[in-house]
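Consider the tokenized backbone below.
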């Protein structure tokens, strides 16, 4: 395998031209490549290829289309990110409230191992998790203004402050080792069962990391699948081999998760923003139809109808 060596902007433009990408304005193309990075932009090429085993672009594909898909992905990544953060804050608040109310607000109280499941399979996980949280307390006692304030003035950090500096991954793991009665108190607010809620948290945590690192979003597939929901059925999502073809481990699965965890007005705003981004992308595409993008996203034709499906009020 040949070595990957540095290429100048002019050389990068020539590579793209040799692959069949139409570049009418070389200066514009060089500006995009300099600002956005050839490697990152090139990650969006697949929908514009002649076939999966042919690295040439569909005839007539312009760099403006490739860049439009790149910008579209950035837009929806930001839309999803801000809504994942809303869920993250809600979950952190609810968990900290439940544990503080029941077990106390000082570290020695809410981090007592007896507060968590105590079977062989989970015992080590609980111990490791408590250690992680204690390290966060030690680290953030001097690095974060809120935690520093509580340490200096009160000598402890209550859980409702600590969750501010805990990663979503740690909070997801924290939920997984709570006693059943505490888990029920939390999931009852969302009208979900424990396993479904726990699965949603793991997927959301993964997507949060994807968004934060600006990885490709629109055609991402998660290792975990979500269970079939009423949304799959009401939307009449097509099936193949008795499995729904959309909304299982794709981006529409994330929409379904957020539909289950956000307030109705938040879901409406999110879906409207996504639809506007899709319409803008469609306007800029010439060589491929928008349906090709939607298929890779896992979005059914009636993706917006999820807004009008009723669900139990969260609070």
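A designed sequence for it:
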């Amino acid at each position: 395998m040949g070595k990957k060596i540095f290429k100048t902007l002019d050389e990068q433009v020539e590579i793209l031209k040799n692959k069949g990408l139409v570049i009418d304005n070389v200066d514009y193309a060089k500006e995009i490549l300099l600002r956005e990075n050839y490697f990152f932009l090139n990650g969006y090429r697949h929908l514009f290829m002649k076939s999966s085993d042919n690295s040439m672009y569909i005839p007539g594909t312009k760099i403006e289309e490739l860049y439009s898909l790149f910008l579209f992905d950035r837009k929806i990544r930001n839309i999803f990110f801000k809504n994942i953060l809303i869920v993250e804050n809600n979950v952190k608040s609810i968990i900290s409230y439940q544990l503080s109310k029941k077990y106390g607000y000082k570290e020695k109280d809410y981090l007592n191992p007896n507060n968590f499941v105590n079977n062989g399979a989970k015992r080590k996980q609980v111990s490791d998790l408590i250690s992680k949280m204690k390290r966060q307390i030690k680290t953030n006692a001097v690095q974060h203004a809120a935690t520093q304030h509580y340490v200096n003035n009160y000598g402890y950090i209550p859980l409702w402050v600590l969750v501010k500096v805990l990663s979503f991954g740690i909070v997801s793991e924290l939920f997984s080792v709570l006693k059943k009665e505490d888990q029920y108190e939390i999931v009852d607010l969302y009208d979900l069962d424990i396993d479904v809620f726990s699965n949603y948290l793991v997927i959301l945590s993964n997507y949060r990391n994807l968004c934060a690192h600006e990885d490709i979003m629109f055609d991402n597939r998660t290792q975990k699948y979500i269970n079939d929901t009423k949304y799959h059925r009401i939307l009449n999502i097509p099936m193949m081999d008795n499995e729904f073809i959309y909304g299982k481990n794709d981006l529409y699965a994330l929409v379904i998760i957020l539909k289950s965890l956000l307030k109705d007005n938040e879901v409406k705003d999110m879906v409207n923003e996504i639809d506007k981004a899709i319409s803008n992308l469609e306007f800029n595409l010439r060589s491929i139809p928008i349906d090709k993008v939607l298929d890779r996203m896992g979005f059914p034709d009636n993706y917006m109808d999820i807004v009008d499906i009723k669900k139990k009020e969260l609070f």
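The beta strands are 49-51, 54-57, 239-240, 243-244.
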